[in-house]
Amino acid sequence: MASLAQKRSPALAVLATSFVILWVVVASFPFLWTLWGSFKVQGDFFSKADWTNALWGTRTILETGDAFTNQAYSGAWIDQEFWRATLNTFTVVFFTVIISLTFGTLGGYALARSGFRYAFWLLMIALVFRAMPHITLVSGYLLPFFEWNVWGHLPTSIIVLVAINQPFTLWMLHSFFLNIPKDLDESAMVDGCTRFQAFRYVIIPVMWPGVITTGLFSFLLAYNDFAVTAMLLSQENQTMVPKIASFLGSTFEEGNVMFAVAAVVSATAPLFVLILFFQRQIVSGLTAGAVKG
Amino acid sequence: MPHRTFFWFILPSLAAMFLFIALPIVSVAFQSLYIEHEQVLIEVENCGPFGCENETVVDAEASAAIRDAEPLGRFNGLGTYFDRGHLAAAEISEAWASRDSFGGFMSEVMNLPFYRALVFTLTYTFVCTPLIILLGLAIALGVNGLPKMLKGPTIFVSLLPMIITPLIGSLILFWMIDAEGVIGKTLQVLFDDPKLSLKASSTLTWITLIVYGVWSSAPFAFVVFYAGLQTVPEDTLEAAMVDGASRWERVRYVVVPHLMPLVVFITLIQLMDNFRVFEPIVGFSASANATSLSYIIFADLRGDIARFNSAAATSMLTIIGVSILLTPVLIRTWRDFNRKGA
Which helix (H) or strand (E) holds B44? Predict the structure, then answer.
């Protein structure tokens, strides 16, 4: 029910609605266009003659005999071995999320229940760490990692991503645990549980909504990372994002760009599915930090 | 919670942060004080059919041996910080001494890599952040007025630019603004200039990057504001209406003050995130016209010969920049905390 205060004049309603429609187009058109274009040949996606070629696939029909082609996809996935990068990405992302959440729930729980002054300081330090540009940290890792011969391996970048993820995870889970009443675990301890048992049997069963929300953001951080994975992984261990960057290379080679287009669409698909299923959690996660100030 | 238990609970998290965030900062500070070894030069006699001559060549083997023995390089103190690639003390003072106008001095300064990156980073940060907040608020107000059925799908679409991998998002836009891409072509027709290219001039590149920045971060502000709008007190709004406030005045004097804490929160997050702008420059291949602090570190590390020391010095300067940016926030939080504690 729209209350009286929400009511607006027709002119304003039209204006507001058209603004929202404009925004929806601006937000979604690039994705739709690239998805459509990824089934064309390069001559259509970057059309010298007429931009409508991209819609009807004029050159695609000339070159392949059909308006749609999966040349770009087969090129990227099979010839350029994009599947390997996909596999690497999912390994990195899976372990990063699992380890960050394990560390983060333990730490966040401790920070929420401590009540001592140093807990506040730890959170402040975490905030400063959160602000560090990732590439500055990477320039600190490179030389030692070369020296110790751990450069280029997946576990190295997993642990680095976990660490970079920690400040955010701690903040998020800390504010989430603050919302779980203290009485819950304290009464368990009165009944003779140790702190860890109280955590294990009382807190863990009720913490899943917060953990899932935090996990989504850890996933995004690991999945979207470019600075760390581009610098710390060797050629054969590359994940999707650096792999896409390497498709482009330094030259604008015929065909190569379409591989990148297909790879970009492929890499977007999981994110799309993620919002489809977890829209509510993402929205609540984004606002969780804000509401507490 | 007793100190002991607290310690065991926080240990894994703290260890990870200490080893991979705190120590690298120390490592960066350390590396920035060193500089690459000079090449070992030797004189060889080169005899050809036209007689012999002395040549100075690099002794690759001896150079590599020194590099292996001391990978950090040789001690250079603060030298790297003041060289041409960073603070460029000598160049700045010379440009200042020989300036004929302030504009001339500024263009000299803009030729120095560090200042070029710094100016772009700051411009990007301080132009994007307010625009993101304004656009986010506008979208939130618009979506809030939609029929309930349409809200979900609208939020879904709005999340896309934010959730997308930054490098991928910028590539998608980069292909569209290409002179042969759909937006690039449209702009050429609109401005009736077949040679128009957004990549050609630095002004246009800067605008493109800022537009991308706003596009990709406005959804964040939108979602936060939208959640805030659900908690605006209905009574106050109605009271304002009874007092004869127009819709605009209600937004200005009731809604916006209610959202003020959220504005502070978004500003903080956006300042931190925009200051490390990096992926768009890679995605838009914009490094000829615009570089950021993060980008020049990346370029140093990615060059044919990785220049760790130069990258480390830039990193240190960036970290100092981040600290300056964060100081007001930290002071504020510190005061809040003390007030709460008292």
Answer: strand B41-48
Q: Is the dihedral of CA A155, A161, A167, A170 positive or negative?
A: negative
Question: What per-residue confidence (pLDDT) applies to B85?
Answer: 81
Same domain, A67 and A104: no
CB of B155 within 8 A of CB of B225?
no
Q: Would you call A289 and B157 a contact, using CB atoms and an 8 Å cutoff?
A: no
Q: Does B16 touch chain A (CB under 8 A)?
A: yes
**Which residue of chain B comes nearest to A228, CA vs CA?**
B298
Cβ atoms of A190 and A262 closer than 8 Å: no
> How many domains are contained in chain A?
2
Q: How confident is the model at residue A40 (pLDDT cuts 50, 70, 90)?
A: confident
Q: Which residues of chain B lie closer than 8 angstroms to A227, CB-CB? A: 278-279, 294, 298
Give CA separation, A180 vs A170, A185, A192, A203, in Å. Answer: 15, 9, 20, 8
Interface of B with A in 103-122 (CB under 8 A): none
Q: Which two tokens stand for residue B33?
A: 């004080």
If asked whether residues A126 and A70 sit together in one domain, one would say no
B310-332 pLDDT, tens digit per residue, is 889 999 999 999 999 888 888 88
Contact criterion met (CB < 8 Å) for A290 and B330:
no
> In this predicted model, what pLDDT tens digit does every residue of A239-273 receive, in sequence order?
999 888 888 764 555 667 888 888 999 999 999 99
For chain B, list the domains and their CATH numbers.
Answer: 65-111 (no CATH), 119-341 (1.10.3720.10)
Q: For an interface test with B, which of A95, A135, A274 has the most B Cβ atoms less than 10 Å from its Cβ? A: A135
For B293-314, what is the mean pLDDT? 87
Q: Do B227 and A287 touch (CB under 8 A)?
A: yes
